Amino acid sequence: MGPTGSGKSSLLNALAGRLPAGGSLEGEVLVNGAPRDAQFRSISAFDDIMFPNLTVRETMLFAARIRLPASISDQAKGALVDAVIGRLGLAKAAGTLVGSAAERGISGGERKRVNIGLDAFQAQSVMEALHTLAGDGRTVVFCIHQPRSSIYDMFDQLLLISEGCLCYAGPAAAAAAHFAAAGHLCPPGHSVADFLLDIASVDFRSPEAEAASRARVKGLADVCAAQGAAAAGKDADPEAQAQQIVAVHAVERTPTSSREVADEAELPKFANNPAREFQLLLSRSARQASRNHLEHIVLLSQTAIIAASFAILFSGLDPSKPGGIQDEVSLLFLSGVTVAMNSMMGCILLLSLEQQVVNRERASRAYRIGPYYLARLITAAPLRVIQGLLFSGIMYWAAGLNPSVSAFFIFVALIICEDLAGQALGLAISAAVPHEKIAMAIAPLVVVLLMLFSGFYINASTIPAALAWIKWLSHLYYGLMGLAINDFSGRGGWACPLGSPPGCSVSGEAILQQLGFGGRSLGTAFMGLAVLTVGFNLLGYLALRVRKPRYLALRAAKKRAQLIPIHVQQLEGVLMVAEKPSLAKSIAEFLSEGRMSSRHSNLDVHEWQGSFQGRPALFRMTSVIGHVLSIDFPADYQSWEKVDPATLFDAPTLKSEANPKARVVRHLQQEAKGCDYLVLWLDCDREGENICFEVIENTVPKMSQVPGQQVFRARFSAISAPEIRAAMARLVQPNQCEALAVDARQELDLKVGVAFTRFQSRFFQAKYGNLDSAVISYGPCQTPTLGFCVERHQAIVAFQPEPFWVVRPRATKAGHALNLEWGRGRVFDAEVGAMFQRLVVEAKQLRVVDVGEKEERKGRPHGLNTVELLKTASSSLGIGPAYAMQVAERLYTQGYLSYPRTESTAYPPNFDFHTLLAAQRSHPIWGEYAASLIGNFSIPKGGTDVGDHPPITPVRCATEAELGGGDAWRLYDFVARHFLGSLSPDCVYKKSKASFATGSETFSTSGTTVVRPGFTAIMPWTAVQNAPLPPLQRGETIPIAEVELHQGKTSPPDYLTEAELIGLMEKHGIGTDASIPVHINNVCERNYVSIQSGRRCVPTELGITLIRGYQLIDPELCRPQVRAYVERQIDLVAKGEADKEAVVAHCLHEFKAKFAFFVAHIQRMDTLFEASFSPLASSGKVLSQCGKCRRYMKLIASRPSRLYCPTCEDVYNMPQGGSIKLYKELACPLDGFQLLLFSLGGADGKTYPLCPYCYNHPPFEDAPRLGDKASGGMPCTLCTHPTCRHSPARMGVAPCPACEGEAPGTLVLDPVSAPAWRLDCSRCSFLIYLPKNLHSAKLAPDSCEECGSTLLALDWKKGQSPLAGGDTQHTGCVVCDPLLTQLCEVKHGRAFVRRGGRGRGRGS
């Protein structure tokens, strides 16, 4: 890498052995430690010159067949080509013609990938292809000027040169650190590539700036040379070091001796024999020639026009008229000259255009020149024959030449022979002259010379003897000879020249004698043309052999320079990966003590130097964003319509990148290169352990291989400097058993959940219209969670209230009302209650039977775990569990809380309470309380330690203002108070109780007196009420003021609160601390449960019907015992006590049997649905016409949106989350269905047309889909059919610059976006707003010459045009036109909806 003129290209040419002859080259090139061999030049790809009329696959297949040994079969070569095409990302363009500047073909980036070269155009895609090749074990050496950051991050090693000086050589990732040590610090957030070019460039704006920049460059070169010399243990001369680069950059252009040119004899042998080469070259030339339609049309049209002109001009030749001889001879001469000239000039241009490709292939020793030349001659000959026939057929009879049929065919044969001779002469000139322009200048001179000796202008018999031999080299001479003999021989009656006696006539033989052809025969003419054709072709062949490409030979230097290894200090490379970018930044700040440099690749990367295991190391800290990989079924099992859900239990699974757009996999692989060790800072739970092995899978293969342990695991519970440094000091190995347990759960949930969900959704959504749920899902954890809610609902519905009566006497002592409880509690008979009331009334007073008092304790809380946090957040703070976890995790990543996912309620023995208490001393609310506990607390006892993480605690002091108030502060406040409460003493209080008797009935009352509040002082919501009893003495009597017989009714239980539901899930083992909020959120999103006031979970009609159906078919499907059993099996896997595959197979076998039974008895559940929901036939509103029956279909607007045809009884899924309406009553050209228009809400919501049938049943194999797998489909903007008026082929403007992957989207003109016209990507959310105030926007018929995009024809409203002179119309390219690029606005809108929903956060 280096600035312009630094010597990059010259160095690359020298390394590849392709530096053109014309100077001298000294030095040494080693490949894998050995001198570069002759084969090296043949495997170096440089330019992108290719035959334009061959497809990408044909181009690469020819290269494989011509270069690979004959021992490899053509089938194997074809397979290799297909593999390379896939590797280079060219599968989409494999059948596309390469094209040229005049003929549209593949893009510039694809052209480079075909040839594996590099320039600035399409650099990103080209670099990705090269990066993939390098990842497969190949070595890729290239030069580049100014790469952007994403490209620079792909580099492994970097050579930075400037003005011929070596400024840096070493790992690209270490370049910034190298120059920082030299006093040149890369500014934060600045591109490293731009920074390197800035410091390596010479500033020519002023003499002072130039001098300063040259001094800087020299200083960098001196530092680089000095470091290299120190590393080698020898002194090095920086000037001599620089001269080694300068000698390559500034090659002296001196006359080249034969010894300085690379000897072709040293090159490797050809891969194929001449016959095989001829076969391959003939096939390629034939394809190239047959597809050059434009050239053929132009040539034949030109021939036809000239022939017609001759026919008109010379029509009706009359031998009896004076001058008839001259006219006829002129016509014969012009016929031959015209045809010969056309073929000669055409061949000069043809061979000149091919010469660059041929020279490159010859340099690579692909084939011999003989087979190429012969193949070129044979493929060009048919066109010459057609040209001769066309010319003769039009002109001959109309001009009135020799009327004999045999004479006509001889004329045709002579014209074709003369045409072939002209072609041979053109090839000879083109082969002999090195430049096209020189050849075009020489050709007319040669033609004029040959015309002069053709016998037309000068009689052949009168040519001076010294020059007479030239006529034998003129094919025009032999051509005119043959044509004249054919036309005049044996004929007579030509009028004598003017001035001759009347009635005088001349015979044909006399005319021939006069022309100098007397005594000649047709055989002589044909023989002469044949000999010259062969001779000219032989000259062309020899000229091509002589004109082989020549390159400078590398010769040993006269004085061998001291070779000095150039490299930076060798440091251990340590890659560290956290689970989130914010965590990575915090951990890097703690470990580097703030002395880190940061850069942005796909994710942030922080680098610093330090020590790892006692050795100097370069640390590189980055992150993932959750799971790197996700499990799913292969493409063959993705279709809901074609795949039987029962087969999913035995279907294979695969793991693919969880978020392809984030490019986390590529980021990890890139950052892993050159690193020796991996330290994993993922969350310390099972999910984190699973992510550890996902990171390992994508990094370790790319890392350097070193002996001993390479992968380490950091275990930590809080984001604080002491905790992070302690974790770094006690690194462990990752736990594969826990990772396998997560894999087992993922596979079970995927297969069981998807099988049941697909079957249920398809069955019920095809029958009922008002389900109001996108999918009718089943989940091994989700469904038992719903079951708890429905069971409580069923208990409420089944409850029968019953009246009861309670006797309540009222009495006071010392002004204190006594709250008396009846010893019998309550009775369920009114008469009995009345009887007891009378007895108490008759007694009139209460007698104190007993008074007692005892001291009790309310124990302080144990440590706070996740479940208790979620229960309190829901019941006391009104925060939903899913949102509560989001808030807690955010506080954790910001360093305010410890890790919020833990099952432990007991603190570990070595827990550092003092540090946490000290951090809270300065808090304005509980600071004094925290200070009072320091040195005065007892270590909490009890609780459960499951060995994962300590209980949740505050890590850093935070105020309400610092956290921004709201839910974050309320959650932090609770955690902090709970932590302080767990270290506080128990609450001590006295409980007093008094018993009373009146008649035969007894009553009692109680009171409490707080002795020491203990932990309740900081947790006031747990405080004991201070309600003492009045002084009472045994035997004392108290009068009764009134006796009430209170009537009440028994009440049903209330709906489960979220806190109660969480408790039930924990009790029955449904989910983990991490997944419990997810399962609750899922049943809410699916519209099975709604969260109502008091955070109560009320099941919907759909949820109730589902659970009742499961209870009718197989109650175990919704009971927690089945899932609890599965969780116990997975726990065994996590402990290493059971095999993962065996557990999965066993559980799948059980669920597969249940699924088969469920399918067989689905009618039991269907009966319940039929009673609760409306059938499709009675739902929805009429919208559009069916393409099958031509009747109208209904739109079911409730979730999921569907179209239903009552006649055909077909259901068609629609995009979700937007509005659907009829689109101008247009019909799909493929199936006749009326088109619909789907619109998403919001200013930037996309709008696109779709055909209901094509959306659900794409007409093309592997057609792209929009949206998710359940409801996604193919709208018109993804249709590849050429007759679809909304397809990218008709409405597409340019490739989407934001799309990624092998199938990027196309920017399509939104047909209904007026007046805010815009272009939408057919796949992603990218959109471009066209200039404002447009009256109309249309696609122009032409394409951009620079980028190939379709031009836009824009028409502004009058008086609101930005164009000069008030013009309102403009046609331009949205990519290249400076006017349009300034006026357009780029945005990311909404492409499709993935339904979120209820149950998220407060009040949901």
Automatic annotation (TrEMBL):
Single GO molecular function: ABC-type transporter activity
GO-annotated biological processes: DNA recombination; DNA repair; DNA topological change
Residue ranges of every copy of the Toprim domain listed in the record: 573-719
Topo IA-type catalytic domain mapped to chain residues: 735-1155
Major location category of this protein: membrane
InterPro entries found in the cross-reference section: ABC2_TM, ABC_transporter-like_ATP-bd, P-loop_NTPase, Topo_IA, Topo_IA_2, Topo_IA_AS, Topo_IA_cen, Topo_IA_cen_sub1
Annotated EC: 5.6.2.1
Alphabetized UniProt keyword annotations: DNA-binding, Isomerase, Membrane, Topoisomerase, Transmembrane, Transmembrane helix
Topological relation to the membrane, as annotated: Multi-pass membrane protein
Catalytic activity as recorded in UniProt: ATP-independent breakage of single-stranded DNA, followed by passage and rejoining
Enzyme class: isomerase
SMART domains associated with the record: TOP1Ac (SM00437), TOP1Bc (SM00436), TOPRIM (SM00493)
Places the protein is found: Membrane
Residues spanning the membrane: 297-317, 329-353, 405-433, 445-470, 525-544
Pfam family of the protein (one): Zn_ribbon_TOP3B
Keyword Membrane tagged: yes
GO cellular component: membrane; nucleus
Function text: Releases the supercoiling and torsional tension of DNA introduced during the DNA replication and transcription by transiently cleaving and rejoining one strand of the DNA duplex. Introduces a single-strand break via transesterification at a target site in duplex DNA. The scissile phosphodiester is attacked by the catalytic tyrosine of the enzyme, resulting in the formation of a DNA-(5'-phosphotyrosyl)-enzyme intermediate and the expulsion of a 3'-OH DNA strand. The free DNA strand than undergoes passage around the unbroken strand thus removing DNA supercoils.
Family that this chain belongs to: Belongs to the type IA topoisomerase family.
PANTHER family: DNA TOPOISOMERASE 3-BETA-1, PROKARYOTIC DNA TOPOISOMERASE
Protein name: DNA topoisomerase 3-beta
Species annotation: Chlorella sorokiniana (Freshwater green alga)
